[in-house]
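User: I'll paste a sequence; please echo it back and then give the predicted structure.

Assistant: Echoing your sequence first, then the prediction.
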Amino acid sequence: MAEKRVAFITGIGGQDGSYLAEFLLKQGYQVRGMIRRASSPNTERILPLIEQYWESKNPDVKSLDSPFFSQYGDLTDASSVRSLLEEFHPDEIYNLGAQSHVAVSFQNPLSTLDINLMGTMRILDAIRDMKLPCRFYQASSSEMFGTSQPPQNENTPFRPQSPYGVAKVAAFNAVRMYRDAYGIFASNGILFNHESPRRGINFVTRKITMGLAKILVGKDRNIVLGNLDAKRDWGFSGEYVEGMWRILQHEKPDDFVIATGETHTVRDFMRESFALVGLNYENFLVSSDRYKRPADVPALLGDSTKARKILGWNPQVKFKEITKMMIVADLKDKFEKTGNVPIERGVMRDDDYYLGIGRDLASKLRKS
């Protein structure tokens, strides 16, 4: 029997890392992950996998024989990176670990560069030094395009408008350099914005969906946002991780844009979210310069023609479906926590059930 391929994911506890781990396990991989140590647990998104494969439940199975195993590590520590590569001997590496918040990068530019650029180079240099026969995927970002005119594809110039974007451009070029200079199978996936119910709560889409849920249950009165006119190409994270995998299955290392080819403003996202429960978003919006960036990216619209033709990757989940998915998830969470919906084991309720309760609560808000 052929040995299972081993995939190593940095940032496995994040939105993309959790979806990618689930996808690769279904493909028959052994999945290994790196988790950054923090004072509070940051493993909520992969908790079902940890519980399913926790070695204490299977005392006769060694950790390295388990389908899923995670270990603490740090992209700012070269020895940490190397020790994990020596332990796991991966066939594929997916570098998703990053300081991923654009606004935070203005406040912490040097640490953003250390994690997002130097962290990438620490992995690449370990691969080179160890002569590790693996394939490497780098999570690049549409923020690299900055002020370049949309639509943006693999040949569009990079004009980043944040320390985050600068770091990602540098890491992108480092991947290309190691590929050309040392023959490493290293590829960049330039992913445009991708969302899901697992999106971090400090990102604007989740801030809107969670904010709406809080308003409906009486925990908040409004949502405070910055630039409402920024245009973004929003896709679904659960689909985009398949794009990552397809990039590494290609016969040769290369760089690909992954995007839906549709663009919407932050205002559109808020309007669509509130419309799902019959509310006018304008009655709950507070605009604040506090949340505006020193330099912003006006419009992102991805042209993923290359990925569609060469990799056969095509997005199915689009803007309205993503918005509904995220709204329903946050409504369910808030309704159960506040007692608006009873928690009943084994009872499955569809999206319309939660949206219906949302509309009832919204009706009461309009009357009050």
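The chain has a mean pLDDT of 93. The longest helix spans residues 109-130.
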